[in-house]
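Tokens as discussed.
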């Protein structure tokens, strides 16, 4: 199971070690990071995101992390979004965050997608504000044995309190029973 930038990493891993991957579930994925996309607006957003994170990652509440949590899981409760923001601060230092964002913004696995042999279930929310649904569609279109499903949600990561979660969970279980 891969979420967000993990989807590109999972695709790359599947091409390097196909014998170790029987199936992939991707949620909110993208094959091309914002900094590599052709849209000037995407490139500007990548730069703005890196600058905001560098300037405010360590802030106390309310923080930039609270804004990011609002974008990643807007359907979640306020308490869950706040916990997510606190967890982000504990997961990565401001110094490592800059390097992390640089990699994410410049990732491009487009050329690897046709080489993915494992079946893939690609799930994406229609209102995802972190990665537009077109990126999820592009991911699925590039993988030979991929199935794409779009959900009516604004979340980037489908959480258990998201009304579309029961649908996604059912699809994931059926997919894994058939392929894993």
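Sequence:
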């Amino acid at each position: 199971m891969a979420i967000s930038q993990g989807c590109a990493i999972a695709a790359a891993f599947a091409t390097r070690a196909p014998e170790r991957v029987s199936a992939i579930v991707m949620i909110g994925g993208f094959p091309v990071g914002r900094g590599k996309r052709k849209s000037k607006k995407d490139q500007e957003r990548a730069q703005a995101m890196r600058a905001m994170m560098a300037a405010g990652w360590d802030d106390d509440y309310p923080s930039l992390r609270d804004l990011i949590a609002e974008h990643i899981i807007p359907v979640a409760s306020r308490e869950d979004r706040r916990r997510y923001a606190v967890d982000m601060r504990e997961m990565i230092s401001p110094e490592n965050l800059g390097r992390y964002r640089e990699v994410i913004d410049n990732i491009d696995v487009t050329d690897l997608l046709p080489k993915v042999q494992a079946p893939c279930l690609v799930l994406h929310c229609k209102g995802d504000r972190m990665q537009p649904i077109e990126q999820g569609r592009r991911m699925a279109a590039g993988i030979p044995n991929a199935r794409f499903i779009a959900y009516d949600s604004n979340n980037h990561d489908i959480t258990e309190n998201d009304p579309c979660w029961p649908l996604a969970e059912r699809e994931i279980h059926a997919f894994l029973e058939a392929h894993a």
